[in-house]
Amino acid sequence: MKIERFEDLEVWKEARELCIFIKEITNTESFSKDFKFRDQIKASSGSIMDNIAEGFERDGKKEFIQFLSIAKGSCGETRSQCYRAFDYAYISKETLDQLLESTIKLNKKLASFINYLKSTEIKGTKYH
Question: Which fold does the domain 9-119 belong to in CATH?
Answer without folding.
Answer: de novo design (two linked rop proteins) (1.20.1440)
